[in-house]
């Protein structure tokens, strides 16, 4: 099979690494890719302007059988709709990707299908939204309706900050059209987890859960980020709870879409809050999570390419996936300042040369300069350092020992990944 992966993060490097292991693979291409992808596999053509038209041309020229879409934006924009007459696509159509693209749509869908989630109210007028704050108790959860690169959610106990978030989104339009509506949600208490499922329009086949560390700094402080580290498995999710998550959440989503005449094919990500042995939905995403993917795929024993292919044709042959019986932990190395302004062009070559064989490195915001043969940072999240071992402690030791002995100026990382709060 000839495969094209769309995206440039740690998630896409990890998907690429896993797909390379498949006996079904013939040719592989990544667009736009990063410094972790072999140069010969990176799409050289610039598809940026008039992306969909150029993409179709590329798919035809290279006889691509399957396109695997990493990020949400192209899915919400309809990349699967555009490509479906030309090749197979792993990723939902825009009619299905709306589950991530509009939080108010998703909440209505959850209500209609009795999927456990937070109570909420939608506002388009900032005065009415601010007035509503008087009727509810803090902490306040304010969300922009549309995609906002992970920055559209404010969780705060301070009324003034909640008011500011409402005004920023609805009046100042800091997220543009994505902020034409806001949701004010009930605050859910508990512990978070991410569960991913491969979906083929009929069934959802679950991966084991992962835990993401979203805040920038230790002890879950600082601003929300895309994710600063991850672990799998998750100690507070047992088999009984996984059965509940399958039946009460994923099966209901699949049925809900069917009732709408929509076939959900691709990955479905449930962001969960767990309390008293029960799971509620914080959000759905229409793609793999980053950095959870980077700890899950090294554990997955099934063929990822086969799963993506079967999902895209609408017929997954398995009901259960197999994972190595190991602990997996990943730490994100980020540029100082992330998730706000950060420094770029940090030289990573020496660090990368020193990585021991018992650690995996998945590149995120990096590039390789073939003339100087040096690696440089290009993004806020730079590298994922992942370890598989017998325990969280063993993984933490291996990763943090390496990071402490190989410091890179102008970068930082959380020192508490794996610790349970
Ligand atoms: P989201 O982008 O919707 O996943 O929100 C980002 C983060 O904000 C989540 O991972 C949670 O940590 C937090 N969050 C979002 N919604 C809620 C909620 N209703 N209750 C508590 N925390 C929330
Ligand atoms: N790690 C959170 C996300 O991918 O949305």
Features:
single chain; 421 residues; alpha+beta; Rossmann fold; Dna Ligase, domain 1; D-amino Acid Aminotransferase, Chain A, domain 1; 13 helices; 26% strand; binds adenosine monophosphate
Describe this structure in words.
The chain has 421 residues and is an alpha+beta fold. The protein has four domains: 92 residues, Rossmann fold (3-Layer(aba) Sandwich), CATH 3.40.50.20; 65 residues, 2-Layer Sandwich (Dna Ligase, domain 1), CATH 3.30.1490; 124 residues, ATP-grasp fold, B domain (D-amino Acid Aminotransferase, Chain A, domain 1, 2-Layer Sandwich); 86 residues, Phosphoribosylglycinamide synthetase, C-terminal domain (Glycinamide Ribonucleotide Synthetase, Chain A, domain 4, Alpha-Beta Complex), CATH 3.90.600.10. The chain has 13 helices and 22 strands. The radius of gyration is 21 Å and the shape is globular. The chain starts with a strand and ends in a 9-residue tail after the last strand. The model has no long low-confidence stretch (mean pLDDT 96). The site of adenosine monophosphate has 14 residues, from strand 6, strand 7 and strand 16.
